[in-house]
Automatic annotation (TrEMBL):
Family: Belongs to the 5'-nucleotidase family.
Superkingdom of the organism of origin: Bacteria
Domain 5'-Nucleotidase C-terminal: 325-478
Keywords on record: Hydrolase, Nucleotide-binding, Signal
The keyword Cell membrane belongs to this UniProt entry's keyword annotation: no
Cited Pfam families: 5_nucleotid_C (PF02872), Metallophos (PF00149)
Organism whose genome encodes this protein: Lactiplantibacillus plajomi
Protein name according to UniProt: Bifunctional metallophosphatase/5'-nucleotidase
Keyword Membrane (UniProt): no
UniProt lineage: Bacteria, Bacillati, Bacillota, Bacilli, Lactobacillales
Every Calcineurin-like phosphoesterase domain range: 5-237
Amino acid sequence: MQIKLISTSDVHGYLAPTNYSRRDHVAPFSLSRAATVIARLTARDDDQVWPIVIENGDYVQGSPLTYFIARRHREAAPLFSRLADCNHVAAGVLGNHEFNYGLDYLDLCESSRNYPLLTANIHDDQQRTLFSKPYTILERAGVKVAILGMTTQFVSHWEQPKNIAGLHFEDVVTCAKRWVPKLRELADVVVVAYHGGLERDPETDAVTERLNGENRGSALLAEVPGIDALITGHQHRTLAVTVHGVPVTQPGMKGSNVGVITLELDANHQVTHRTPAVLSVKDAAPDSRVMAQVDPINQKMEDWLDTPLGYINGNMLVHDHLDARLHNHPYIDFINRVEMAATGTDIAATALFNDDVPGLKPHVTMREVMNSYVYPNKLAVETISGTDLRGALERCASYFLLVNGRVSVNPEFLHPKLRHYVYDIYSGIDYTFDLTRPIGQRVVRLDYHGKPVAPEQRLTVTLNHYRAGGGGNYPMYTTEKIDRRLPTDMTVLIAEYFATHPVVNAVQPTNFNVEY
């Protein structure tokens, strides 16, 4: 028998082939294109060739469409599980972003599903059915395949407490050590579907990111024997590798690829060959069945995206993202102004989340806001010490690399996952980085209200909820230091800011300097 383990991961709500930059944009990715590839892979489905489709998380959040459904048309939320059924999904896994809109909304998104959600390492005090199934066992022609589903345990470090109330996220290696031996007794093939990635290079085993528990795929394969295939996600990487003899796939993001692990079994149900692959969807036409379901709500959302909000006096477009991060930018200054206006603080921080952030055109619509501020972040106000603030700025300063007088981005922020969103720029303080100095010693000026910041000085800062919880390896920020939270999404706060400030001046800030 040949078993095909087919996976999508980190689709992030890009159901139609567009990035929403304009109404007629056509993108080489999307769930609709992936569906065409999946249909081809599942065309033969019998006792000799057995396709099994797995949705590996971060499915219902991440695009303007997901925001539009969650905040303005919740009745459309079952669309996500209907589309998964359309792709013959046999099992689903929750990603960390599945929790962004709360558990009631997640339950609504999954309300039309005919497949199990696998949540082995998520323990629920309220014992809701959404988190009741750690694994599933599928059987065909006498062959049993067990699928164990797990989610990165780092969710609790990022998510708003109310969205995960009563949930506890167990270390995935500990969880797998408990379940895999049991599944080996129950099934011929054991598959782990993990919304998390590899923390080590698959060839050299060298550490590629901080060993903080966010990604534990390498440890899973090194410490837990008996896994026949590992499906990964979360890092947005495109991977088809073999680690410790186990095939591993990760299909990128936005439905740009489909992962396929092919297992060949002999007459005794033993795996004899293992082949991982990742298939691009760029040449696949969008699946008509998917688009027929997506189009009605997508057209409503396109109308909403064209809603005018206000006017920018000056230039707030981002043309050179490295230069903006190196010298600050009017768009960054504007987002910090919105944050400070919403919270009443006079220090705020934000990031250019990725190199696709366009900034804002002179005539601002909701489309520009949604394409520039892509996360459903909420704000938190946190009181920290001067030492904390300096430590945060040193973390920011480590984003840059200086080689032969030329500034580039530190590879730590590029590999194995692009993490431009980890680098913040602050308003309300005056500070300078000296890139000729060693990492950890680069902050050479830090003033607040014209005076140097003292180590024990108390400062109140506005951050997004991800950073306020320490996300991005900022241990100086913790939930214990949060004074208050705002319940409103940043995109709404931006729109509300334009309602009271219909004309916004684009100002080049001068509070931040970099020496090199």
